[in-house]
Amino acid sequence: MSHRSLPVSGSPARPDDSFTHSLMLKALPHSPNVAFIKDEQGRFEVVNNKLATLYDTTAESLIGKRDEDFNPNAAQVESYRKSHEEILKSGEQQTVIETATDLKSGKVRHFRSVKTPFEGPDGRRHLLVVATDISDLVDAREAAEAAHQRLDYALATIDEGVWDWDIRQGMVRHNRKWCELLGLDASYLEHPMQVYSDAIHPDDRACVFAALERCLAGTERYLVEYRMQRPDGKTLWVCDRGDVVERDADGRPLRMVGALLDISRRREDEAEITRLAYTDPLTGLANRRRFQETLARVLAHCAREGEQGALIYLDLDHFKETNDTLGHAAGDRLLQDVAHRLCDAARDSDLIARLGGDEFVVLLGGLPASTALARAQAGRCARRLLARLSDSAPGGNDPIRAQASAGVTVFSGLAESVETVLMQADLALYQAKAEGRGRHALFEPELHEKMARRTQLVADLDTALSAREFFLELQPQHTPTGTLTGAEALLRWRDANGMRHPPSTFIPAAEASGQILPIGRFVLAEACALLARWQDIPALSGVTLAVNVSAAQFAQPDFVEQVKSILAAHGAPPGRLKLELTETVLLGSFDETLAKMQALCRHGVRFSLDDFGTGYSSLAYLKKLPLHELKIAQEFMRALPGNADDCAIVDTVIALGKAMGLTLVAEGVERDAQRDYLCARGCDTLQGYLLGRPQPVGAFEQRYA
């Protein structure tokens, strides 16, 4: 049998009598192991059946023969020969690990052979060999080594840092991936637990060790996400998981294994997703969702700590006009600049958010418990924000003044909800706009009552439309000599209880709620129905009828088609319909306004510019519009002719109108002196209480038919 070097030395066996020798010869054939005796030349003298079976022969056939007579494996035979000679020469017992081929199966077997030299009764040297078959042990060891190699390969290739914590020794072993993740060299493949602890981010250590303690106590498996610090200063997020795999008889943990995975990229992606979910993409400010969640937390904090908070709700004044005249790109730049200015003016602790469009909010926390002091501080903050916004802001080639209005409400968190705080700030904002814009207003309880009345008014307007409670009154327009030339259609509302509502109350509410659109269509339809009927009344067939058109109504994309359709439906003459536009309409897209006016003019409809002189009309634009008439605003009539400034304005407007070939209409004429002054300046048409009050359609027709 060939051998591997595993020498074990001992005293040589020296049987000194024939009895011992005889006993050995009798016991040898019955040994459960391979056993045999060789002479000095390596010939078999005594063998047992185990050896015969190995060589696929009989015991008798082996006697007097050598290994090479049966074993074709020259390397094995040579190793047996060398071992035989060395042991006989040394006279020392040795234990060697060697192999032999099972000649019947062809399988190589492994043996642990104890080889003992001795002298026989005849004085010659012999070698006793007892070989134990350890093939199963060798196979198991080789399988374990292969498994270990495969495990090493797996640990080297997986994308996780594996750790093995010997709790008794306080040592932790790792695979190379763990060292790679932490930026450590191979000297850290095994190290004290303190090294692991030091690598954990200081802010996360308490959380990590609390999770470890729960696992060691057996209450749950170890699973935690935390940050680790590399020697190069970089921080990585890891998902670390593991469990106790060995405990002593008393249940105390002895060994724990686990693995950690680098989740830095996932954390970055999650942070980006969260940022997108909570950030306004245009300005980079917090969005509505983040604002509402933060407000809920601030309300709870105020209630718990006895503090006050405040919400400032800002809305840019005339932002739509800026967007329409300068374009959306300029509008976006303005919104971004507003966001920047708000951040400059607010405190670091304040949350600034864009709710959408041109609406911004600033959330203040940590205000004094005194409501009066909190209101005063919030008011100062609102004034500071508005002042910062009122500076010129970039908008293309020309600066834009980003004027805004603000509503302010103070809260304690004891009774308010997120919705309540927003509603109160919105009511205050509405009040600020009603007071003239460019200012702030603090919420007062009566504002809620005012809003309730406005809400009820909007609901009543819906009822008025469906119940046909709206109707028209007509105010006549005359030449200076008293000839009727036209009339203005004025909307009136009488509810089911017979109560009349003033237009100054319900028209602004209709414009704010969007109900002005169906109301405007109603007025236009009623006017066209009158014009159609007047074609059969000779005295009225040449009279024009003026209808006021709101900016929202004119801005509808299908406004031109609406007018044409209503004219056709009633069979009204387009040339007798006059649409009155305010200068606010001209603040929209000029090209779009011009195109709509030209389209209706080609159809025969005429246009009048209402309240001329009170808006912001550009004369350069004015001369390009297909206007037929200018109406001098009645606010210039009140002090006429006693006020020199009003006289100068009226004279200028009349001169301008005549120079442009437009008809001049003065409204609000109530006194003879006014009429005389206007007639002397050549005003074409007069309208006012002096010549005729607004009156029902029937009364108008009865008087002038």
UniProtKB/TrEMBL annotation:
Family annotation (Pfam families): EAL, GGDEF, PAS_3, PAS_4
Residues covered by the PAC domain: 222-275
SUPFAM superfamilies on file: EAL domain-like, Nucleotide cyclase, PYP-like sensor domain (PAS domain)
A Gene Ontology molecular function term of the record: catalytic activity
Start and end residues of each EAL domain: 454-705
Domain GGDEF residue range list: 307-445
UniProt-recorded name of the protein: EAL domain-containing protein
